[in-house]
Please model this.
Amino acid sequence: MESAIDKHLKCPRTLSRRVPDQYQPPFPMWVARAGEELRQVVMAYLGVQYQGEAQKAAALAALQHIVASFALTDGPLNHDLTHHTDNSGYDNLIVVGYWKDPAAYCRWLRSSEVDGWWSAEARLHEGLGYFREVVAPRAEQFETLYAFREDLPGVGAVMDSTSGEIEEHGYWGSMRDRFPASQTDWMEPDDELRILSGDPAKGGRVIVGGHDNIALIRSGQDWAEAGPEERSLYLDEILPTLEAGMDFLRDNGAPLGCYSNRFVRNIDLQGNLLDTSYNIGHWRSVEKLERWAESHPTHLRIFVTFFRVAAGLQKLRLYHEVSVSDGRQQLFEYINCHAQTGMLRDAKPAPQACPAQANAS
Amino acid sequence: MESAIDKHLKCPRTLSRRVPDQYQPPFPMWVARAGEELRQVVMAYLGVQYQGEAQKAAALAALQHIVASFALTDGPLNHDLTHHTDNSGYDNLIVVGYWKDPAAYCRWLRSSEVDGWWSAEARLHEGLGYFREVVAPRAEQFETLYAFREDLPGVGAVMDSTSGEIEEHGYWGSMRDRFPASQTDWMEPDDELRILSGDPAKGGRVIVGGHDNIALIRSGQDWAEAGPEERSLYLDEILPTLEAGMDFLRDNGAPLGCYSNRFVRNIDLQGNLLDTSYNIGHWRSVEKLERWAESHPTHLRIFVTFFRVAAGLQKLRLYHEVSVSDGRQQLFEYINCHAQTGMLRDAKPAPQACPAQANAS
Model:
């Protein structure tokens, strides 16, 4: 048994773990490991928004274009593709790319091919929406959790290995306890989402400013290799409750501090559905995520089911990764997306410059 | 809003609270308050064990005798009576008495009337079982929580007043956070239950030795004044799940660290049922209680229901009190009780004196 917090990320605690040292988890779980040289990762969710079958081919072509750009120098080390329909009735294709070198990501983003495409006037007139939601958590700002040990998805795929059985899981608060940052930091938000430029109601280009410690959770399911029993466990028992919980957050998340919630299904490059899915949740803070997860009937039911079956899982793969990030390590940009997309819904207009300040400048 | 930990019990923390300072509970709850002069309380659960209607009158007379002894000098300041049938098929009458002066309790216990009755040879030959389970937590070793503010039951009745709305509730871990001791102490067990004298299998007199930080929870329900809607909420919605959870703990608690669990119904001195009840749970530690409460389907369902209705409760009174105590501030004594009673079930034989030690002494 070992701590979820890797040795080189340990530091003298000013905040205590939630459980005593004697705590024993009720079943085994694992986390992703990387060497000390991994200082910061980049998680870039790049989206194409469209409406219905008529636009599907164009949207898919746009997604394929983005994926092709990953083959450029400094592209991401891992990526996967998803589709979901949002509660405004729009379809969305997202590719998420993972980097373990923020400088490489920066060079890629600023390359003439990538920046040229994003900045081109043509993007405004294709009848499609585009978005980029990117966070770059440092090594102490994210945690992972897997009920399996091979072929880690998501950020795990750009890391080096899998841990031994870890201590910090199976209790409420263990997510926080797996963050190296939690040893000394409450990871609290310092501001609200702000519209930095543009107007979501008018479409066009909009930039949203984030804030410190926005929490991003990717919580995934992979039933591709599951036998009949585990397929049924997932599809008949877990999925209906999971969908109810994720729909609840999508539709009612704002007052709870959930900025955006997308339950997405993996697809291949041609748009065919795969037997993997995940939820992408953006939260005002880890604390808001904790409060919901610990109290909402749907999540408690999922938790109970997981507790019951976790020790016996064979091929059904369940996992999550959760990060926080500094506000200045976030990028939320939208082109012609509807006003409920991503961070747009809860972003407040930037405070107007006060005339006295304007005069002073 | 104020902390559940009273001002005079605050100390510099070495262990952190589970939630950030900004945490806001989702509905109001209150705790009992007492002045600095309250240093330690005594909670004495005094029981009579019998089988079936034939013995009921004798058992009730024994209970009445104990209650009458409360009127002696230094008797408890508050008490209430209960009945429950245990899973060995025995009936049990318990009166719990509360003192706020441990010296008074000691004088009462050692008085010739009380000690004489308990120690009398006659107790062994009445065909009834008797037990005394007493703990004496210091002010920093117990916490309370009420969804109401008037006429506090249990330990609250021997305290002075009710707090304002408190901060530490509505999240897993808040029970621990309400213990003043939790500011600096994990409240961990230091040993196991041990048979100190006698043999539970043979009956007769048996004394069990406790250990530091046994957790005792009294978790109560009072629907006496509830209107039709709240009676139905309690009896039809909460009670079935509550009973399932409490039965589970009674029958399957041992591997979870639950030494004893009794869901008891209040009665009057004649044995008539009242519309109040509570659960009496003894646990190896607060941590074991936390683990069960946070993960068992029945408790999660009760929690979800409580969250839903808490803000609107009118006359249905729900509350709990939880304590830990030092091993030497505990008394577990049994006379002719069956071997599954109270602490008897999980108590291990005392380690046999090693011959070398015996020689050395």
Observations:
- Chain B touches chain A through 25 residues (CB under 8 Å).
- The mean pLDDT of chain B is 95.
- Residues 29-222+263-290+316-347 of chain B form a domain with the Alpha-Beta Plaits fold (CATH 3.30.70.100).
